[in-house]
Write the structure tokens for this entry.
Amino acid sequence: MTLVIRELEHTDTRILGALRCVDASTGAALAGPLQVRVSGARIRRNRSGLYVIVGVDALAAHEPEFDTPPADPALGSVEITATLQDPSGYYLPRTATLALPRDALPANAAQADSLFQPIRVAMFPASTVAAGANWSVLRVSVRDIASSDALGGALLLVTSGADELGRGMTDWRGEALVAVPGVPVTTWSDAPDAVVVTEIAAQLEVVFDPVSGLRTPQEQVRAGSAPQTLPLVNPDALAAQRAALPHASLAVQLAAGRSQTVSFPLALP
């Protein structure tokens, strides 16, 4: 008996990129599903938890081409904006800018802009979530110094020298969780009279965009009345533009297992 197999249907799908969502504190890939929307594009979540870009209106000519993608538009010249939200509320909503098309050459597969490398998008935990054991935690409240309005969608950066140790983002109440995992319990000291120290000197910086950020009066915060529209910002863009945006910094001391509450007034133009 001869087994005959006939192909009834053949479907090819052109992949234009993929998003890998990770926890901003640990870098671990997120297992739970998110709501990912991109205007003018089609997104599918695969079994590996990647959000795959299978179609973009501006790149319609790329979809039927597999062996040789069109040279126009140029690599990275088309920017689309993705909106990411966590239905569970564990992570804050955010936007991300995706530069397409990606480099489809297999020889460049190790490059950051390669089609074979997912685009990493960090999701920021809400201020109410629990932190890991032995983490150094900053629970920060950001407000306008003049009006005392809570500033939602502000970016918090923790740095020590040239190293970035952690990031956080404020919710509509101006509250943020900034977790710094991996702070050693003791470390070597540079001071002449000390061998080891239990604290690390760092800088906490806040960056706020008055255009994309949200201002909420303290009366509304105290009433617990959330606005209809929550802060929706791109933290990567805030970090890149922080020299041109309202920002300020203060010194903090980090220690393993320590949780600190910091009130951060910011002067706005």
Remarks:
- Residues 136-266 form a domain with the Immunoglobulin-like fold (CATH 2.60.40).
- The chain has a mean pLDDT of 90.
